[in-house]
Specification:
Hypothetical protein af1432, Rossmann fold, globular
Length: about 375
């Protein structure tokens, strides 16, 4: 399958460097080069592209403005932005329209790798309409409860990053957006992702405040066309519980630090695909109706109607946003057969944690209560129902 890429940069040396490298790529790679946003839009009107890679600073229309237009007119196109300016304000301006952020100088091979990773993420879902839906996602609903508490904390003169981080870690949408920032090369943070606190320390409270207050970045649940009785607080509570339990289970199963982190982060984000589906009320209603009529579980209904599940859809979105592969795989596989050999250890830990959270009504378990649990929950080679 061809990979059609449009690169937009007014720097002649950059485009010439790309041309030299892509000349040696396999024939399925098709690159075209333009020097401005207007030229890019004209070309996209004439022919289809899978990916657009744009410089941030260009005369006339900048990269963020270009990708905002592309997101509206061509939502199925993967959008990558790169820049030599490590300005957090610029990152914020492009946080919605861009899937990925790359920092200049950036080796051409690294840009090619980023393009490949995003296209691989789209391959997690089978249907072209679903790919378009996943690539077009820019808004996720934020819990009113978390948002209001976050605002109050940020208004305090001596508000702490620790308290702010605790609140953000209780809302899937803000948590996912923060991880998208962590993954950004603009911020110069280490890969793979470690503790989410790193991003708060790097960009500071003032930038976090801008994220929270910017109506173009966060969208309240009350302002989105969500289904009636949308259970956002229930999903957030469940996800916090699963994250805690998945990290514990992975640790007891002998996971290393990266895999345990993947279990915790993947546990928090494992149901992000449900929130994506909730953003399409008609589709969500078809799935819930199928569950009611056929008396089947949610995943079976999703497979019948979508050809995939919320797990793969959520993993697709996270892959587009540049999250590390172990987290993407953990989210994608958390409904697979519960054996370590079937998927990553983190994915198996998340599946086990989800079952345990449901039996415990999603209540948090402290260290003493965890010690009292049946050892079967921590044996990932056993099937637990």
């Amino acid at each position: 399958m061809s990979k059609r890429v449009l690169l937009v940069d007014d720097d002649f040396n950059i485009t010439q460097g790309f041309k030299r490298v892509v000349h040696g790529l396999p024939s399925e790679w098709k690159f075209q080069f333009v020097g401005s946003g207007l030229e890019a839009l004209r070309l996209m009107d004439e022919q289809p592209f899978d990916v657009i890679v744009s410089d941030m600073r260009m005369p006339g229309m900048n990269g963020a403005e270009l990708l905002q237009i592309v997101m509206g007119k061509f939502p199925q196109v993967v959008r990558i932005i790169f820049s030599g300016y490590s300005d957090p304000a610029m990152v914020l301006r492009s946080i919605r329209p861009a899937h990925r952020f790359l920092a200049k100088p950036c080796a051409t091979e690294n840009v090619i790798a980023a393009i490949s990773q995003t296209l691989d993420a789209l391959d997690l879902v089978p249907d072209e309409n679903l790919k378009k839906m996943a690539a077009g996602i820019s808004d996720l609903p934020v819990s009113n409860y978390v948002y209001e508490n976050l605002l109050r904390e940020l208004e305090i003169y001596d508000s702490s990053l620790k308290k702010v981080g605790h609140l953000i870690n209780r809302d899937i949408a803000i948590f996912a957006l923060s991880l998208k920032l962590v993954s950004s090369e603009f911020l110069g943070l280490p890969q793979p992702i470690g503790i989410i606190q790193q991003v708060f320390e790097r960009i500071g409270l003032e930038s976090i405040k801008k994220i929270v207050l910017d109506k173009n970045v966060l969208f309240m649940e009350e302002n989105m066309a969500l289904p009636e009785k949308f259970p956002l607080e229930v999903i957030n509570k469940h996800s916090v519980s699963v994250a805690q339990l998945a990290a514990e289970i992975a640790g007891r199963a002998g996971a290393d630090g990266d895999e345990r982190t993947a279990a915790a982060i993947g546990g928090m984000l494992h149901d992000i695909g449900k929130i994506v589906l909730f953003g399409f009320p008609g589709l969500y209603q078809r799935i819930t109706n199928y569950v009611a009529v056929q008396q089947c579980d949610l995943c079976e209904a999703e497979r019948q109607i979508l050809g995939t599940t919320h797990a793969e859809l959520g993993a697709c979105l996270l892959g587009l946003w540049g999250l590390p592969g172990n987290i993407v795989r953990a989210v994608a596989h958390h409904h697979c057969a519960p054996k370590k050999t079937a998927n990553s250890l983190a994915g198996t830990a998340i599946q086990r944690a989800e079952l345990l959270a449901e039996t415990n009504n999603n209540l948090p378990l402290d260290g003493e209560l965890l010690k009292l649990l049946d050892p079967k929950w921590f044996d990932l080679d056993r099937i637990v129902t």
